[in-house]
Amino acid sequence: DAQSNGEGKVIEEVIQCLDHAFLQRRELSSTRLAGFLKRLACSSLHCMPTSSVPLLACTRQIASRYSSSSSSKIERMLENEEDIVAEGVFSPDAEDPEHSNSHATSLWELSLLKYH
Description:
With about 120 residues, this protein is mostly helical.
């Protein structure tokens, strides 16, 4: 239908932007990267499956690209099923993802998306 086709075009553009920002760009700090990965996972929960799957694939590519150079905190976000990974409190409403303290949480959204 027209609405899902429109959403598909938006997702394509979003993925192109993410590709330019994270995959074709210089190295980013692990803090900024973790903040964006957390936001992508949260955003995927609010999309239709036809949109969340490409977003998750892009998230995986980004995490893979930086896995060798990132801190072990990002890996713990992916592997940890508990909500707390590091000290502090995660602030999802922080304007800058670098200041959201995303290392203080896990990517629990990924376990929910298995059933999405």
